[in-house]
Write a structure and sequence with these properties.
heterodimer, A: alpha+beta, Arc Repressor Mutant, subunit A, Alpha-Beta Plaits, 2 domains, four-stranded antiparallel beta sheet, 6 helices, 35% helix, 21% strand, extended, B: alpha/beta, Aspartate Aminotransferase, domain 1, Aspartate Aminotransferase, domain 2, seven-stranded mixed beta sheet, three-stranded antiparallel beta sheet, 13 helices
C-alpha cells in the first residue's frame, strides 16, 4: 500500500464508476498500472465491493432501520468474536461494531417495517446466549450516511469571471 | 461642472474582462472556467466557530494588527510550514484579504517616480496599485520557454537606477508556474545587488503539486528586504471572508501598519475568528481540497493537450494556461468566440499583461464533470475553426 494506492482508493470511494482510463489521466499513471493496482486491491480484499449510496427514505420503499445495542458476556478464548460473527450472518444486520461504553455491540438492523424489526430483535437477537441486555433505537430520519449528506444545499452564487 | 475624477483614477485602465462579464450575463448554460476562486465551500468547522463567536457577541473592532491569538497561531504556522520566522507582535498585520495587503505594502514603499518591476503574466492589481501610489509599473516578461518562471536575464534588462521594488507571485496566477529554491537563488543576487525590495504574493503557496512551496524570504539574505503577502482565500476556500496578512521586518511593517490603521482600521473580526479556526483544525480539509485540485489538473491538462491546445504542466495554483497560437486566433478572439459559440468562459491571457497574449487562463476549480464537459465543448469549437 503506497500513496498511489491511497489515491486510487480515495477516487474509487467517491465514484467507483470511473473508467481505468479516466483514473489514469487523473493520477498520471498508465492505464495498465491502474488496472493492475485495482486488481491487487480487490484480491487483497481492501476493496470489498462496489456499491451505491442510496437515500432509501427518498426511494420511499418504507423500510425501517434501527440501532440495536447489546450487552454481551464475552467468551473465554474468543471474547466477542464468535457471537459477533453469528449475529453478522443475519441478512437484517447491515452493520455490526464492537464499541466502548455501556454496551458492547452495536448493530444497524433494517427491515420491511417496524414489525419485522421488532420481531427480529425479540425472536432472534435478544434470546441468543450471552446477550444480557438490548436497547433498540428506531431511526427516525437519516441526515448523513457514510459521508454523504441527504439534504439539499443552496446553490451559492459565483461570479462568472474574476481575475 | 468640472470633471471631478482624479488624473490617477483616469490613468488606471478599466478591467480587461468587463466586456466578457456583460456578455456572459445574457447567456444560459455557461461553464465558467473564468473564476479565480475555489469551488468548495468553506470547511464547516471554520464556519461554525465564526457563527458561534458572533452568537457570543464577538463583533467589535480588533487591534489594528489583528487578533493576537491569530497572529500567534500564524507565526507558528509560518515557521512550521515555510521556515519563515516573523514575530507575532511586530512583524505581522492581518489585512482585509491579500488585496489590501498588496495595496498597503506598495503604498508603504513607493514614492512618485519610483519604478516597480512586476513579473508578468501576473494578477491584474499589481500595476494599478503601483500607479495609484504614484509609481511606474515596469513589466518583466515571463515566457513559456522558461515555464513562466522569472528569468534573471530578463529581469536584469529592466532594472534601472529608478527601480525600487519587484513584485512576484509564485505559484502564479494565471500560469500556475512555481519558483523552486534554486530558481529564486538565481534572481536573489540581482535583487540584492541592485538594492531592490521584494514584494512576494504567496496566496497560492498551499497549492503546489510536485514540490513544497519555497518562500523567497527564506532564500539567501532576502528576508530583510522582503514583504511576504499571503491569505486564507485560496487554501481554505475562504474568498468571501476577506482575510489576508502581511509579514515584513519591523520598520516596513510599521510603515504599512500606519496606512492600514487609517484606511481599514482592522480586518473583519468574524473573518479573523474563522482564520484562526482554519489554522487550528482545517489542515485535513485543506489537504483533501489540494488533492482534488491535483487530480483535476492532471485530467484537464492532459485533455487540453489531447484536443490540440498545447499546455505546460502547471505545478501550482489552480490554473491551466494553454496556448492558442496554433489556431491563428488571438487570445481575446478565441475567448470571445468560445463563449458565444460553445458557452465556455475562459479569461484571455493578455488580461494578465505582457507574456500572457496567445494564451487562455482556465481555472480548474470546478467539478470534474464540468471540466469534462468544457473539454468536449472546446474540442467541438476547435473543429469548427
Amino acid at each position: 500500500m503506497d500513496e498511489k494506492d491511497l489515491d486510487l482508493l480515495r477516487i474509487l470511494e467517491e465514484n467507483s464508476r470511473l473508467s481505468a482510463e479516466e483514473i489514469a489521466t487523473m493520477t498520471n499513471l498508465g492505464k495498465a498500472e491502474v488496472e493492475d493496482r485495482i486488481r491487487a486491491l480487490e484480491a487483497s480484499q481492501v476493496i470489498k465491493r462496489y456499491s451505491t449510496v442510496i437515500n432509501w427514505e427518498k426511494a420511499g420503499n418504507g423500510e425501517v432501520s434501527a440501532i440495536i445495542e447489546l450487552k454481551v458476556s464475552p467468551e473465554r478464548d474468543f471474547g466477542y468474536d464468535r457471537i459477533a460473527e453469528r449475529l453478522s450472518r443475519f441478512r437484517q444486520v447491515r452493520s455490526l461494531r464492537l464499541i466502548t461504553g455501556t454496551y458492547d455491540l452495536q448493530l444497524i438492523v433494517t427491515g420491511k417495517n417496524m414489525q419485522e424489526v421488532s420481531r427480529f430483535v425479540s425472536e432472534h437477537v435478544a434470546p441468543m446466549d450471552r446477550i444480557r441486555e438490548t436497547a433498540t433505537h428506531i431511526i427516525m430520519k437519516s441526515y448523513k450516511e457514510n459521508g454523504n449528506a441527504f439534504f439539499e444545499q443552496l446553490e451559492t452564487e459565483r461570479l462568472p469571471y474574476c481575475p | 461642472m468640472r470633471n471631478f475624477t482624479s488624473a490617477r483614477a483616469q490613468e488606471i485602465p478599466p478591467s480587461g474582462i468587463r466586456k466578457f462579464f456583460d456578455l456572459v450575463l445574457t447567456m444560459n448554460d455557461v461553464i465558467s472556467l473564468g473564476v479565480g476562486e475555489p469551488d468548495f465551500r468553506t470547511p464547516w468547522n471554520i464556519c461554525e466557530s465564526s457563527i458561534y463567536s458572533i452568537e457570543q457577541g464577538v463583533t467589535s473592532y480588533t487591534s489594528n494588527k489583528g487578533l493576537q491569538t491569530l497572529r500567534d497561531a500564524l507565526s507558528r504556522y509560518l515557521a512550521q510550514h515555510y521556515n519563515l520566522n516573523y514575530s507575532s507582535d511586530q512583524e505581522i498585520i492581518i489585512t482585509s484579504g491579500v488585496s489590501e495587503a498588496l495595496d498597503i505594502a506598495i503604498r508603504a514603499i513607493v514614492d512618485p517616480g519610483d519604478e516597480v518591476l512586476i513579473a508578468q503574466p501576473g494578477y491584474v492589481s499589481y500595476g494599478p496599485c503601483v500607479t495609484l501610489a504614484g509609481g511606474k509599473p515596469v513589466p518583466v516578461r515571463c515566457v513559456e520557454k522558461d515555464h513562466f518562471k522569472l528569468n534573471p536575464d530578463t529581469l536584469s534588462e529592466q532594472i534601472t537606477s529608478k527601480s525600487k521594488a519587484l513584485i512576484i507571485n509564485f505559484p502564479n496566477n494565471p500560469t500556475g508556474a512555481v519558483m523552486t529554491e534554486s530558481d529564486l537563488k538565481a534572481v536573489s543576487d540581482l535583487i540584492i545587488d541592485h538594492d531592490l525590495l521584494l514584494i512576494s504574493d504567496e496566496v497560492y503557496a498551499e497549492l503546489t503539486y510536485e514540490t513544497r512551496h519555497c518562500s523567497p524570504a527564506t532564500v539567501s539574505t532576502l528576508r530583510e528586504r522582503t514583504i511576504t503577502l499571503n491569505g486564507f482565500s485560496k487554501a481554505y476556500a475562504m474568498t468571501g471572508w476577506r482575510i489576508g496578512y502581511l509579514c515584513a521586518p519591523k520598520d516596513l511593517c510599521d510603515a504599512a501598519l500606519k496606512i492600514h490603521q487609517y484606511v481599514m482600521l482592522c480586518a473583519p473580526v468574524m473573518g479573523q475568528v474563522g482564520a484562526l479556526e482554519a489554522l487550528r483544525s482545517a489542515e485535513e480539509e485543506k489537504n483533501s481540497m489540494v488533492n482534488e485540485y491535483r487530480l483535476r489538473r492532471n485530467m484537464f491538462v492532459a485533455g487540453l493537450n489531447r484536443i490540440g491546445l498545447p499546455c505546460h504542466v502547471p505545478e501550482g495554483a489552480f490554473y491551466a494556461f494553454p496556448s492558442v497560437e496554433k489556431t491563428g486566433l488571438s487570445d481575446v478572439e478565441f475567448a470571445e468566440r468560445l463563449l458565444k459559440e460553445q458557452r465556455v468562459a475562459v479569461v484571455p491571457g493578455s488580461v494578465f499583461g505582457s507574456g500572457g497574449e496567445g494564451h487562455l487562463r482556465c481555472a480548474y476549480a470546478v467539478s470534474r464533470k464540468e471540466l469534462n464537459e468544457a473539454l468536449l465543448r472546446m474540442e467541438v469549437f476547435l473543429s469548427t475553426l
